[in-house]
Design goal:
Layout: H1 11-23, E1 49-51, E2 54-56, E3 62-65, H2 80-92, H3 101-113, E4 119-123, H4 126-141, E5 145-149, H5 156-159, H6 170-173, E6 176-178, H7 184-193, E7 198-203, H8 215-225, E8 229-234, H9 246-250, E9 256-259, E10 270-274, H10 276-279, H11 295-310, H12 313-334, E11 341-346, E12 349-354, H13 363-374, E13 378-379, H14 392-414, H15 418-421
Parallel strand pairs: 3-13, 5-6, 5-7, 7-8, 8-9
Antiparallel strand pairs: 1-2, 2-3, 4-10, 9-10, 11-12
Helix pairs in contact: 2-11, 3-11, 12-14, 13-14
C-alpha cells in the first residue's frame, strides 16, 4: 500500500453506535452526519470535541476537519470571541418570557449588510426560514405551487418532492416542481405548465457551479413577469460567499432570502429576511416558535458577524480554498487522473468530484479516496467547508494526504482493483432525486 496508514482506533465510537441503534431511529439526528456518508468500518462515527480547524473522536483520533458541522463553523471550533459572547449571555440567561434586545440588534445588523433585508425574522434551522418564505409567498400571491432548484430542508413543501418524501401527503408533493440550475428554459417550462399557479421560485443562487452570465437576472425577470416571488436560499452561501450572501456577490437582489449555518458559528440560528411589504405578512401569517428569540444564539451570531467583518475572514477563507483547489488539481494532473477526478467550485466551498471516465459520477472512486484520507487524518465530504482557523500548514498537510490517497487510487485504477481496495461500504447519497447542474 502506498503511504501505508495504520487503522484508526474506533472501539468507543462503535460501542456508541451499537447503543444508538437501540434508542435513535436511523441511529442519527441528521442523515448527512450518519455513517452512510462515510466509509463504514473505517471512518469514526462520532466527534467528541473540536478546536480551531481540527476535531477529535471518542477514541482520541485527530482530524483536520472540512465538514465543519455541515457548514456552520465559519470561524473554527470553540472560537474564542464567539465562546466569550455565549458565556456572557449564559450568565444573564438563555431565553425569556418577553423579547430580548439582541433580537433588535441582530435584525439591524442583517438589514445593514444583506441587500434584500428590509425586515428580519429569526429561526433555528434553514428549513424554518425557507418554509417561512414559502408561506409568505403563498399568502401574498394566493397561489399554492412552488418552483425550486437545489436542496431546501426537511419541511413537507420541499422534501415531499424528493426520494425522502415518505409521510408527506400526496396532495402536498404535487405542489412543488423542480427546474434545472443554469437552464432558464426549464423554469420557463414550469411557468407554462402551471400558468398562474406558481407562488414562488426558490433556488440556491449558487452552489458548486457558477451561474451562467445573465442566468440569475433572467430567473428574477421571469419570476416577476409571471407574478411570483423570488426567494434565494442562502443558508449555505450567506456569510461564506460574501457577508451579504450571493445576492451581494452577484448583484441580483431577491424578494426574500433564507440565511443560516455560518451566521452563528455553530449555534442554532437562521434568518428569514426580505422586502418590508412582504415580510409584514408575518404580522398575521403564523411564523412563531418558542426558541426563535433565544438569546445565546443571537449573541453568538452578532459576535460571529462582527468577527467576519473586522478580521476580513472571507478573504482568508477564499485564499486557503484556492490553495486547496490548486494543490489537488496539480496532483491529479501529475498522476494522469484528470479524466477521473478534479476539484471544482468556488474557493470558499470547493468540491472534489469523481467520474468513471465516461462522465458518470463514480461513488466507487469517491469512497476509496475518502477511505484513504480519513485513515490519514482528514475528515471531509466531497464539498469542503474551509474555515478561518484553517491555516497554510493545515492546507499543505491536507494536500500531502491527498497526494497519498490519489496515488492509492491511481494504482487501484491501473490494476482494475478499486473495489478490492475498499475496506467498507460504498458511500450513498442522502437524497437521490434533487436535480444537479450539468457537469
Amino acid at each position: 500500500m502506498i503511504g501505508n496508514a495504520l487503522p484508526l482506533m474506533k472501539d468507543r465510537s462503535e460501542r456508541l453506535w451499537d447503543r444508538a441503534l437501540r434508542v435513535i431511529p436511523a441511529g442519527t439526528q441528521t442523515f448527512s452526519k450518519g455513517p452512510g456518508q462515510y466509509v463504514s468500518g473505517v471512518a469514526p462515527k462520532y466527534i467528541q470535541r473540536g478546536l480551531g480547524g481540527r476535531v477529535w473522536d471518542p477514541d482520541g483520533n485527530e482530524f483536520i476537519d472540512y465538514g465543519m458541522a455541515l457548514g456552520p463553523i465559519i470561524l473554527g471550533h470553540a472560537y474564542p470571541r464567539v465562546n466569550e459572547a455565549i458565556a456572557a449571555q449564559l450568565r444573564d440567561g438563555i431565553t425569556f418570557t418577553l423579547m430580548h434586545p439582541l433580537e433588535v440588534e441582530l435584525a439591524e445588523q442583517l438589514a445593514a449588510i444583506v441587500p434584500c433585508a428590509e425586515m428580519v425574522r429569526f429561526g433555528k434551522n434553514g428549513s424554518d426560514a425557507t418554509a417561512g418564505a414559502v408561506r409568505i409567498a403563498r399568502a401574498c400571491t394566493k397561489r399554492d405551487k412552488i418552483a425550486c432548484c437545489g436542496y431546501h430542508g426537511w419541511q413537507d413543501w420541499y422534501i415531499g418532492s424528493t426520494s425522502r418524501g415518505l409521510g408527506v401527503p400526496a396532495a402536498v408533493t404535487l405542489l412543488t416542481a423542480h427546474f434545472e440550475y443554469n437552464n432558464i428554459d426549464s423554469l420557463y417550462t414550469l411557468f407554462r405548465q402551471h400558468s398562474g399557479q406558481i407562488a414562488a421560485v426558490v433556488l440556491e443562487p449558487v452552489n458548486f457551479f457558477p451561474p451562467r452570465p445573465g442566468f440569475l437576472e433572467d430567473v428574477k425577470d421571469l419570476t416577476h413577469r409571471n407574478g411570483a416571488i423570488l426567494v434565494f436560499d442562502e443558508v449555505i452561501t450567506g456569510f461564506r460567499f460574501s457577508v451579504g450572501g450571493a445576492q451581494a456577490l452577484f448583484g441580483v437582489v431577491p424578494d426574500l432570502a433564507a440565511f443560516g449555518k455560518a451566521m452563528g458559528n455553530g449555534m442554532p440560528i437562521s434568518a428569514l429576511v426580505g422586502k418590508g411589504e412582504l415580510m409584514r405578512v408575518l404580522n398575521d401569517a403564523f411564523y412563531s416558535f418558542t426558541f426563535a428569540g433565544e438569546a445565546v444564539s443571537l449573541a453568538a451570531s452578532l459576535a460571529t458577524i462582527c468577527e467576519i467583518r473586522e478580521k476580513r475572514v472571507l478573504d482568508h477563507i477564499w485564499r486557503m480554498g484556492a490553495r486547496l483547489i490548486d494543490g489537488y488539481n496539480r496532483i491529479v494532473a501529475e498522476l494522469g487522473l484528470k479524466r477521473l477526478t478534479k476539484c471544482i467550485g468556488y474557493p470558499c466551498w470547493p468540491k472534489v468530484v469523481f467520474n468513471d471516465g465516461d462522465g458518470h459520477a463514480s461513488p466507487l472512486l469517491e469512497t476509496l479516496f475518502q477511505q484513504e484520507i480519513v485513515k490519514r487524518g482528514i475528515l471531509t465530504r466531497p464539498g469542503m467547508f474551509v474555515c478561518y482557523s484553517h491555516g497554510p500548514h493545515d492546507v499543505d498537510e491536507t494536500i500531502s494526504v491527498y497526494r497519498l490517497a490519489l496515488q492509492v487510487l491511481a494504482e487501484a485504477v491501473e490494476r482494475d482493483a478499486v473495489r478490492e481496495h475498499l475496506e467498507g461500504d460504498i458511500i450513498e447519497p442522502v437524497i437521490r432525486s434533487v436535480l444537479q447542474a450539468p457537469r
